[in-house]
Amino acid sequence: MELKAVIALKPGDVAAEDVLDHKGNVIVKKNTSLDKFLIQKLTISKISCVNIKEPEDFLTTYFEKIKVSKTFKQFFEIYSKNFFEYKKMMEQFLHSRIPLDSAKLFDIIEDITSPFKHSKITILDMLSVLETAEADFLYTHSINVALICNYTAKWFRLDDEDARSLVLCGFYYDIGKFVIPPLLLFTQLSQVEGDKNTRSTRSTGH
């Protein structure tokens, strides 16, 4: 929910909590959709601020709420900027054989993670709702694995040298797939997923 000044309220805003006057009387009930008359009533009652529902408050599952949260929107902007930086580096490596700069790879991970070190929503949770275009799958996959490796390094309290090595492994371990023709690569991935579903069906009997 968001604490919003009464002068900034708009018709259609929904009260996240009961709004009480200075005597403790309820003047607007929780979940009430405000109209211009209720907003005027709040003004007359000298109410300065009201807790208003945000988009995620109307959703039911944890991951639905993440996807519309301000934290995820910030994450997506930062991630997208670094995605294009990484994609540029990879294309220079693949087409011009310009070596990847490890320091820049570490900078990408730091830039993505540093704003969310104290966030209630973890990087892993935000990665789980991040949508990826098929054409960009390998680039995002490499970044995501490196982020997971960074998370794992902190979880196991690895020293700086080992942590950096693990992050580089995340970036590099699937690098060979970049030279596989996309049609062949994604056909193979589809077949693997199909085999998994078949095995699952056989094991469950459904």
Written account of the structure:
The model has no long low-confidence stretch (mean pLDDT 90). Strand 2 (19-20) and strand 3 (26-28) form a beta hairpin. The strands form two sheets. A two-stranded antiparallel sheet has the order 1-4. A two-stranded antiparallel ribbon has the order 2-3. The protein is elongated. Helix 3 (70-96) runs antiparallel to helix 4 and helix 6 runs antiparallel to helix 7 (160-172). The protein starts with a strand and ends with a helix. Helix content is 56%, strand content 6%. It has eight helices and four strands. The protein has helices at residues 36-44, 62-67, 70-96, 102-113, 123-128, 137-155, 160-172, 182-204, and strands at residues 2-5, 19-20, 26-28, 49-52. With 206 residues, it is mainly α.
